[in-house]
Write a structure and sequence with these properties.
By secondary structure, the protein is of the alpha+beta class. It contains 12 helices and 16 strands. The protein has 2 domains: about 1-100, Beta Barrel (OB fold (Dihydrolipoamide Acetyltransferase, E2P)); about 120-440, BirA Bifunctional Protein, domain 2 (2-Layer Sandwich). It binds 4-amino-1,4-dioxobutan-2-aminium adenosine-5'-monophosphate (4AD) and magnesium ion.
């Protein structure tokens, strides 16, 4: 039978069954009479040990080559593994030019070095583990939503709305080779989506609880370690929502449930990251998981920051956005427990955020979740469901005409609702302790960089 490496390693009582395994050679060691190979096919961090007679021509059996091995699965004498493959036949499928292969046998390459080779870095343990965790985390998030009665919505990638300044836009136009009868392909300016929120609000008006999880685009001119031009966002929208508290409960639950699932389904891979990429991070993560997330208001946050204003380049001030340095300080101040900052000044936020009625300071029911080492992980809010208030806010922003359809939602069975967006790459950074966002996405896109 043909087995993946993971399946072969999982055979508990190997007793000589004939199997075929395919993969890439991760190590070669030859002794007098035997040759030891380790073969990895990406199904697990661990490789399968292959034992061969040294009479087998070993010249081509080099690090990085792809091979097919036929043989018998037997109990291993070695301590570290349960089974090994006694080779009867090894076929080199594709030889690897080891001398010029940028990934070197037995070396631990820094993530920064590997970033130069987006087409090869997935063959290393570090990227292998990170990307398997990414895959598991995707599944965990989907299963959280499925278990909690959310409908998955494919929101469009191309859209004519900009979600009111959620981010800088990339405009979409056909290539100049295409002859379009009209001047403009869509008749209106079209953009890559910066957020699926408004489409989710439409759907929450029918399915009550919805989510989307897809690529999101922002033309941010930033080389920072937490910004990408293309990233994945997890967004949810919930109807009949009573309070910001209820929304924050879902945000916290999602973070914790997905993380617990990843830790249990992918423990080896997570461990590798914690050990080699971010020593000490496991404890920081456990600390986040076992504590209730904290809640402070924007006004309280500004007060806390003002007490420490000598630490900052930008002086914190009520009515001005929090800077990254402020976010970092707040999380430290909160004992490295994730903290929700709520009730932001109305003037800082888009028209759709719900106005807090009894606040003399004119705030909206907005929420950001700040996490250790990263800063903002989530952004969300209650949405303005009251027709007349929304109408005025739109008019003040000069958007009445463009958002008639959005006002309609408040005319035809409006309900209190709210939602959030979580940056998926920042989530992975937070779980794994990876410092640079470019290392948790297979093919990072950022200013001046769109290779492959
Ligand atoms: O705070 P943001 O802009 O929120 C929204 O777009 C809302 N409309 C979402 C909603 O309520 N449905 O973005 C949400 C999150 C941020 O908190 C951050 O984690 C992530 O998306 N994010 C980025 N991640 C990587 N690179 C970028 N350039 C990002 N911009 C935002
Ligand atoms: Mg935000």
């Amino acid at each position: 039978a043909k087995l993946r490496v993971r399946e072969a390693l999982g055979v508990l009582d190997a007793s000589g069954e004939r199997v075929t395994v395919q993969g890439w050679i991760r190590s070669v060691r030859s002794q007098k009479e035997v040759l030891f190979l380790h073969v990895n096919d990406g199904s697990s961090l661990e490789s399968l040990q292959v034992v061969a007679d040294s009479s087998l021509d070993s010249r081509e059996l080099g690090f990085g080559s792809s091979v097919e091995v036929q043989g018998q699965l037997v109990k291993s004498q070695a301590k570290k593994q349960n089974v090994e493959l006694k080779a009867e036949k090894i076929e080199v499928i594709g030889n690897c030019e080891t001398k010029v292969f940028p990934i070197k046998y037995k070396e631990r390459h820094p993530l920064e070095f590997l970033r130069q080779y987006p087409h090869l870095r997935c063959r290393t343990n570090a990227l292998g583990s990170i990307l398997r965790v990414r895959s598991e985390a995707t599944a965990a998030i989907h299963s959280y939503f499925k278990d909690n009665g959310f409908v998955h919505i494919h929101t469009p990638v191309i859209t004519s709305n900009d979600c009111e300044g959620a981010g800088e836009l990339f405009q979409v136009e056909p290539s100049s080779k295409i002859k379009v009868p009209e001047e403009n392909f869509f008749n209106v300016p079209a953009f890559l989506t910066v957020s699926g929120q408004l489409h989710l609000e439409v759907m929450a008006g029918a399915f009550t609880q919805v989510f989307t999880f897809g690529p999101t685009f922002r033309a941010e001119n930033s080389q920072s370690r937490r910004h990408l031009a293309e990233f994945y966002m997890v967004e949810a929208e919930i109807s009949f929502l009573e309070s910001l508290q209820d929304l924050m409960q879902v945000m916290e639950d999602l973070f914790k449930a997905a993380t617990v699932m990843v830790l249990s389904n992918c423990s080896e891979d997570v461990e590798l990251c914690h050990k080699f990429v971010a020593p000490g991070h496991r404890d920081r993560l456990e600390h986040m998981l076992k504590n209730n997330f904290l809640i402070i208001s924007y006004t309280e946050a500004v007060e806390i920051l003002n007490q420490a204003s000598q630490n900052f380049t930008f002086t914190p001030k009520w009515g001005v956005d929090l800077q990254t340095e402020h976010e970092k300080y707040l999380v430290k101040h909160c004992g490295d427990i994730p903290v929700f900052v709520i009730n932001y000044p109305l003037a800082l936020k888009p028209f759709y955020m719900r106005e807090n009625e009894d606040d003399p300071q004119q705030t909206v029911a907005a929420v950001d979740l700040l996490v250790p080492g990263i800063g903002e992980l989530y952004g969300g809010s209650l949405r303005e469901e009251r027709y007349h208030i929304l109408e005025q806010r739109l008019a003040r922003s000069g958007l009445t005409e463009a958002y008639q359809w959005y006002l309609d939602l408040r005319r035809f069975g409006s309900v209190p609702h709210g939602g959030f967006g979580m940056g998926f790459e920042r989530y992975l950074q937070c779980v794994l302790g990876v410092n640079n966002i470019k290392d948790v996405i297979p093919f990072p896109r950022f200013t001046h960089s769109c290779v492959l």
